[in-house]
Amino acid sequence: MRRRISCHLVASRLLFVLLSLAVLPLAASAEEGPVGPWLQARMREHAAWFSYQGSGEARPGGALGLWRERPAGETGLPAFVPPTSLAPLIRAVEAGVVNITTVSPRDSGLAGMKRSTGSGFVLTPDGLVVTNSHVVSGASKIAVRLSDGREFSAEVVGRDASTDVALLRLSGSEMGDLPALYLGDSDRLEVGDWVVAIGNPFGLDHSVSHGMISAKERVLGVGQFDDFIQTDALINPGNSGGPLFNMKGEVVGVNTAIISQGQGIGFAVPINLVKDLLPNLRENGKLTRGWLGVIVNDDRESAERRAPLVKDVYQGSPAAAAGIRSGDRLVAVNGRTIGSYLQLLRKVALLAPGTEAKLTLLRQGTTQEVAVRLVERPAQEAAEGLVQRVTSDEDLGLTLRDLTPEVAAPLNQVAWDGALVSAVSPRSPAEAAGLRMGDVVTEVNRKRVKDAAGVRAALSKGSSGASILLRVKRGDSQQYLAIAR
């Protein structure tokens, strides 16, 4: 074959030389006409093509200038290792994947019991197992079988329907040390990472499928804690509750849902969300939501990912005790970066009351950390009475706060020497006038004010429709700003 290709190449080159000699007089005679330049261009292209044959060099742009090709022997994409076999990974982790069988009363009052199957994985050597909440919901009997054939009865330690996560405890003789799996870091997953799902679809023990991460932070409309990993690894009925592994053999998700209309679209709960929830389920048996006590900008409609901005702080709340104040940006919770209102809600609400959380704040360009001990979320009506919001006039879009000694000291301001602007509503009269968060209002219509109540009292004396003249301290400078009502 190689000899035939070589002979063909020699013949092609000889034909090219003969054609070149034949068309030279024609090209010369048509030098002034339209044929000459076209013919010369084609000759140059053919000459370039022949010059690259067998040279092993790259042809930048190709012979016709339409594409790029790598030179022979180039390694290709950096840091990319094509997968070969997943067998060693599967052998290392499959012992920790379990089959779950439940017996529960039939729906709608029908006689008899129904039997269902699902999947799960061993969390601790002493018998804690993670699965989906819907797998064990309403079950009167739960049996868990390991890959080595051992079977144990199980009871629900805690479960939460909003995240579809449940924690079970096995019981029985000869349990010994169970093959607990390692948990990974789902925040480090990237779209395109390879993953493996192991479970018991349709009752078929330890079926394996593989694919990649298709998307992160998918919202399916299940609840306020929607934060699903999307994967094209096949997930079928019976896979629910089984683990999703990365290429290190670490659990990075709990397989939880499928879209029946789609092909190869599956979803998993991120393991970092499960990590936050597990202590809550173990201690309380359900999701008892922790409460920080702040009001932040709800950026759910914004495409821009930014750390949530604190608008107000509730009196007597954990946030107030930790010194968090209006204007702070909440950058991270327990070292995990947050970039939206929903991320803050998930990370705080999943932590049990009494948990001490470490919050990272951004305040006037400076990063600092504070420790906050969360409490149980109060009833909504009780929380409404705790807010420290002092708004001078709702129509102005201006939120003010007293310059107490605790507030004034970090800002290098004099206590009770005006009212601090803690928030300015977008597209409001206050924003149009040029007011900014961090400004200190010292006068209203030429009258001195010392706190937010003084600003409100001065505004109430103004005429309807008249402009409001504010004297504002910004840094080391003073200026007057007029707000149109």
From TrEMBL:
Residues 286-365, 384-476 form the PDZ domain. Gene3D superfamilies: 2.30.42.10, 2.40.10.120. It comes from the Bacteria. Keywords: Hydrolase, Protease, Signal. It holds the Pfam family Trypsin_2. One of its GO terms (biological process) is proteolysis. InterPro entries: PDZ (IPR001478), PDZ_6 (IPR041489), PDZ_sf (IPR036034), Peptidase_S1_PA (IPR009003), Peptidase_S1C (IPR001940). Coiled coil: none annotated. One of its GO terms (molecular function) is peptidase activity. Belongs to the peptidase S1C family. This is Serine protease Do. It comes from Myxococcus fulvus. The lineage of its organism: Bacteria, Pseudomonadati, Myxococcota, Myxococcia, Myxococcales.
